[in-house]
Amino acid sequence: MERFRIGQRFTSASRSVTREDLATFARWEGLRVSDGVAPAAFGVILAAELDRSEDQGGPPYRVLESSWSYHRPIRVGDALRLEVTITGCDSADNGERVIHRHLALVTDGGEQVQAGTDRIAVSAGHSGAPDPRSVIGSLDWAAALAELLSRDARFRSATDQWDGTIGLRCGDREMQLRIYRGRVIETARRTPLGATFTVAASELTWTELLTGPRNDFMRLAMRGRFSVIGNGYEYLRLAKVLSVLVDNARLLTEEGEYR
Amino acid sequence: MIEADYRDVDGTRAYVEQAGTGTPVVCLHTAGQSGVQWRDTIAELASLGYRVVVPDLPDHGRSEPAAGGPISDLGQYAAWCERLIDEVGLRRPFVVGCSIGGKIALDLAARMGSRLAGAVAMAAAAGNGTVNLGALRRELEDVSAPSRSERTYLGTLAVVGSAVPTERAELIASMHRREDPVVSTSDLIGWGSHDVRAKLAEISCPVRVVAGADDLWISADDARATAASIPRCQFTLLDGIGHYPMEELPDFAAVLDGWLSALEAPRESR
C-alpha cells in the first residue's frame, strides 16, 4: 500500500518540449502558436503528463482542485521536469484521503517556470495516511507539539514570564497555542482572545522548514517566506521561542510513522 | 606582535590595533561589531608583509562615542577613516571592509582615489541596503527593541554560509551578540540610506567586490552590478560563504593577500 508522508518528494524524468508538442496542443485547443512559445495552459498539460505516479505503482487518484502560477513562458527546446512535494493530508466526507501537493515545472538548470498546488483524492483502501501528528497545522500535530514543548527546558525558561497565544498558520489551516508561564495550556483552532500574533506561510514553506536539513526559520523569515499578523513587538520578543518551537516541530516530522 | 593604542581621531578617542610592517592595509568591521572580527587575520596578514591597521569605529568595541552620538551616516565614518589614515601616517594604504565596512571602503575609494592603493569591499553593494528604515528608527528606542540579543544571535546564524562548521558559526554569532543595540541599529540605518552608486564611475583606484553566495543581506547580482560600474574592478563570488568572509573563511589572510596582490598588478581584467 502506498504510504504518504509530509515532505515526500517525487521528481519526474526530464522532458524536452518540441515543436510537435506545441502543434498538437494548439490543434487540440484551437489555438495559434508562434515563435516557439507555448500558450500558458500548455504547462498544466505537461505537468499532468509528467505526473505519472500511477504508472510507478502509486494509487489511482482524481484531482479535486488546483491552482497554477506562470513564472515565464515555456519555449520549444526547454527541458523540464516535474517536482512534486506532499504538503498536507486530510479526509473527505466520503472517507477518501485528500492529499495536498505542491507541483513545480523546473528546467534542467533549476529555474522554476510554472508551479502550483492541488488536492487529490485517493481511496482510503489504496493509501496509508500519514501519522496525524506529522500533518502540519492539524489538531493532532499541535497537541503533539505542545507535549514536546512542555518537555523542552529552553521553551519553559524562555516563556516563563510570558502570557499569550501563538498562532501557526499553514496554508488555510491555523492552530493556536495558548501559553502561560512556560506551559502550553491549550491548543485549539481558536482561543477566546485570539492569537497574540500569528506566523503564516504556505504549506510548501512549512513543509520545507520542517523536513529540510536544518532549522531555517530565520533564513526563510528574512526572505519574506513567512508573514506575521498581530502584535509585531511580541513576535520579535519571542524570537528564541519560535526557533525552539521549530526545532520541536521538526522532531515531529522526523518521528512520523505511517500506518 | 599586535600593538594596541588609543588615538584621538576627529574628537573621538579610538582604539586601534596595528601589526607588521610593509604595505599598509586598513581593515573595517561590520555594523555594531568591532575590530575583534579581524582577530584571526591581523597577525597572519602582517606576517605576509603588510602593516595591518584595525580600528574600532567610533562607539564600537573599545572606542569612545562619536561627539554627536551614534552615527547613522556611513559617509561620516568614511570621513573619519580618512582622518585616521592621516593620524597613523599611512601612505597609499589598501582599505578592506565588510558589510557597512565594505560600503565605507567603496566610499573611501571614491573620496581618496589614487591616494589609496586599492579597496576590497566585501558583503556590500553600492546602493541603499534593503532594510526597513522605519522599523530601525523605532528600534532606536530600547523599549521598541525586544529580545535584541537573541535576534542578533539568530540573525547572524542565518547569514553565515552553509560551508561554515556549526561550531564556528555559533562562535561568530555569540561574539556578535556583544554589540550595543543603539549603535548597531544606527549603523543599519546608515546601511539602508547610504548610496554611493553615483560616485562609482569616478573611482580611480583598483577595487575588488566580494559577495558570499549565502549572504541574505545583499544579492550577488547587486554586488556584481556595483563591480561593473567601477572602472578597474574585479568581482569574486564565494560559494558556501555568507555575510562575514573574514570570520567564515579559514586562512582568510592568505585569501586577502591574493586579492591585494591582484589589485597591485597593473590593469587587471574584470
How is this structure best summarized?
The complex is a heterodimer of chains A (259) and B (270). Chain A is of the alpha+beta class and 259 residues long.
Key traits:
heterodimer; A: 259 residues; alpha+beta; Thiol Ester Dehydrase, Chain A; Nonspecific Lipid-transfer Protein, Chain A; 2 domains; 6-stranded antiparallel sheet; 5-stranded mixed sheet; 8 helices; 13 strands; 29% helix; elongated; B: 270 residues; alpha/beta; Rossmann fold; 8-stranded mixed sheet; 37% helix; 18% strand; globular
How would you describe this structure to a colleague?
The complex is a heterodimer of chains A (259) and B (270). Chain A is α+β, with helices and mostly antiparallel strands and 259 residues long. Chain A folds into 2 domains: 2-129, Roll (Thiol Ester Dehydrase, Chain A); 133-255, SCP2 sterol-binding domain (Nonspecific Lipid-transfer Protein, Chain A, 2-Layer Sandwich), CATH 3.30.1050. Chain A has 8 helices and 13 strands. Chain A has helices spanning 19-29, 42-50, 139-150, 153-158, 203-211, 217-222, 232-237, 239-255; strands at 2-3, 9-11, 15-16, 61-70, 79-91, 97-107, 112-122, 127-128, 163-170, 173-180, 183-188, 197-201, 227-230. In chain A, strand 10 (173-180) and strand 11 form a beta hairpin. In chain A, helix 3 (139-150) packs across helix 8. The longest helix of chain A is centred in the C-terminal third of the chain and has 17 residues, at 239-255. The N and C termini of chain A lie close together (10 Å). With 270 residues, chain B is of the alpha/beta class. Chain B has one domain: Alpha/Beta hydrolase fold, catalytic domain (Rossmann fold, 3-Layer(aba) Sandwich), CATH 3.40.50. Chain B is 37% helix and 18% strand. Chain B contains 10 helices and 8 strands. Chain B has helices spanning 42-47, 74-87, 100-112, 133-138, 148-159, 166-176, 181-193, 220-228, 245-248, 252-264, and strands spanning 3-9, 12-19, 23-28, 50-55, 94-98, 118-122, 207-212, 233-238. An 8-stranded mixed β-sheet of chain B has the order 1-2-4-3-5-6-7-8, with helices on both faces. In chain B, helix 2 packs across helix 3 (100-112) and helix 5 runs antiparallel to helix 6. Chain B is globular. The N and C termini of chain B lie far apart (36 Å). The chains are: A alpha+beta (259), B alpha/beta (270).
